[in-house]
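Open question from group meeting: does this chain pack into something compact, or does most of it stay loose? Before anyone orders reagents, we agreed to write out a predicted structure and look at it together. Recording both the input and the output here so the notebook holds the full record.
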Amino acid sequence: MRKLKRFVATVLAAAVAGIALMSVTAFADAPYVTYTINGYGQIRQTQTAYLAHATITKFGEEALAAPSDIFIAPDGLIYVADSGNARIVVGNAEGELVKIVGTGTLINPRGVYVTDNGDIYVADRDASRIFIFDKSGALVREYGKPGSPLYGDELTFLPIKIVVNDAGIMFVVCESNTNGIVEISPTDGGTFLGYFGTNNASKDIMTIIYRAILTDAQRAKMVSNIPATPTNLTIDSKGLIYTVTRGNQNETLKRLNIAGTNMISNFDDTYADTPTAVVAGNHDNVYVADQQGYIFEYNNEGEMLFVFGGPDDGSQRVGLSTMVSGISIDTQDRIYVLDSDKAQIQIYQPTEFTNLLHEALYLYSKGRYTDAKEPLTEILKMNSMFDYANKAMGRCYFYEDNYEQALRYARLAKDYSGYSDAYWEIRNVWLKNNIMTAILVVVLIVVAIYVIKLLDKKKQILKKPKKALKKLKKNWFISNLCYAGHFMKNPADAAYGIAAEGRANWIVSTCLLVVFMVEFVISKYTCGFLMKDVMEGRYEILSDIGMILAVVVAVTACTYLVCTINEGEGTVKKIYTFFCYSLLPYIVFTPLVYILSHVLTSNEIFLTNMLNILTYGWIAVIAVIGLKEVNNFSVGQTVKVIFLTVFTALILALLIFIIYVLWAQVFEFVFAIIGEGVYRLGY
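Structure tokens returned:
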């Protein structure tokens, strides 16, 4: 029945389209997948954010030719820079032609912008001019190359994109002008105000080194390290400028304030590879169109919300593009994407999920956090794993002083900053309520210790415990365990004991290794949220233990082989012992780091980082000293052996990898033969 209804609906739609000969074709399904980014910085599939709603192939009977820019005016009219036909085509969302502007005046219009009062600004590259038409299409003014020497006498004026703020100041992207966006005031026939939002030149460490050591003549032959020219720009309702620049790494998208300072940052590498257009949304959001057809949506902080669309593989399906050159948005949040290769406009309609998110973004940006919780709740009902909604919900609770809930949602969203802020407040409340109790407990402990020492001095109350402890230390296991502590404090003397006094011990060393592995696993999977770098609920304990054992075996074996070749005195037992003893700083300090990870905030986490640096530095120092003393090497021999050991370990790892790959192919071949035999016998 459902198939029959679908068939009838398809036939009717085709019949209506054939009779009406409309230039706008509407669709309902999405031939692409929508993605978002989770709290771990990973791209994940999510609900469809925008549906391919319609395609405009022409306005009335006027077809487009190599269009390069699009703008949706406040009244809903669509302005297209029809570069191939040297004109601006104006139509509506139904594909009806309203008017044509600039015929006979424009040469190669590459950018178009329309103000609230209907003035049409056109950036014409080949005419080297900016043309301004009124709402009727009549030419009002035009601006050529700025006459100011600050612009650059030898620089050409090739405008390709333009936006205008409420004061009438024009911001123009000029082709091949690496100085930044050209800012022009309409006063006095066009006053050059300077360059705005200049990109930074790339800072490659090797280039810096080369330029430091090469001569002037050699540096002159190097490729110039100049900043990239912005690709496109847009302006939002607050007058802030957004730019996109190809190959600008983490500053591909910029949100520039009045001083030209970038106000957003992105460290998740979620920017478009070849951005070609950008447009500000209606909810403190921004859209970036990739040349290949992908559409990225970000909030005003540069966090990616969605990415959808994609390149057309030849199937000619609506919603897929070949060469995107422009993007715009109307008041209903419908996205218009201009495809210069197909000479058509794709229209995307937001889904219910996206409308709820936009409502939450709007309410959140206005400080109406309680109201924003309602659409966020609906979003999380649709997708409880949508991390941005969890993050926004946590922030809403935070501003309502509900820190427990803020902490919960921040953890769900992997929002480390939000988690730290909420935990800071919770900890402050706890300290205010319990500070006197905590101080009293500390005082009681100090007094108790003092009293016990005083009584022991007068009445020897600790005589029996001390005797028992002394007897316990004579136990061979405890004695060797205490000697490991001596190795941590004085590695040179302790290493001599391992080398000459028979202090090498398989059992104690292995026990220390086991304790190390237990602490490593516990710390990795149950440490404080701000220090955890593994995904929640994902445990690879056996893999971790196997990796540790493989490293210990490989390092012990390689060290022994290299030391033997270099006439070292260390045996496998001695090398294994000092290596395990070297892990003692980790065993001692990790519990402290573990405790601190649960009580510190982001501003204080540097304390654990310092402890970790101290721990690993200590391990390295005593391991090197142990290697030297156990094998009776000089300093030079020790350094040589270390490098040879590292090289040998790398060679061993490579051999293991090659053997693994070969055996995997052998097993795959054998299983294929067995499968083929079973199939033949069954047949």
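Observations to bring back to the group:
Confidence is low (pLDDT under 50) at residues 1-22.
The longest strand covers residues 50-56.
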